[in-house]
Amino acid sequence: MRLWMIIGAASITLAACDVQKTPVANEAATTDDPAEVVAAVEDSWRSGSAEQAMALYAPDAVVFSTGTLAPTRDRNIVTRETANFMAMKPADFVVTERNNQKLDDDTLVSSGIVGFTAQVGPARQMLRARFTQVLQRQADGRWLIVHEHMSLPPAGAPLP
To answer: Which of these, 147, 11, 148, 134, lies nearest to 66 by C-alpha position?
Structure first.
């Protein structure tokens, strides 16, 4: 049960993968290129800073995590779970099955399967989650996460 809670806290903030750093690391990209937008968001998770990661969520973002059944718009809950995730010192991010879909000029959906190592109790473990994020361009040109859904892979699913 503890592992499920840790994965839940970790996955609420996951959007990381093994891509090259972009010039807009730690900021939401203002580009029209979906790959650059996603890379900018993912770079924030590598920073180790909950504040930098939370800067990429819209104030009223809807977040589903693997640790709870109900979605939340409560920024305090999302911020706490983001800080808990960063405390696990996640590393070695690998995203497989990535899909970026630009729905219109201001809406982008990114989904995939993420694997990463994290400190779980006394040992580092490999964890995995499935994710979908909806990003919308804001009036100031920044892309922010407005909806995020994380789920655990089916029991027995092979590692990516």
So the answer is: 11
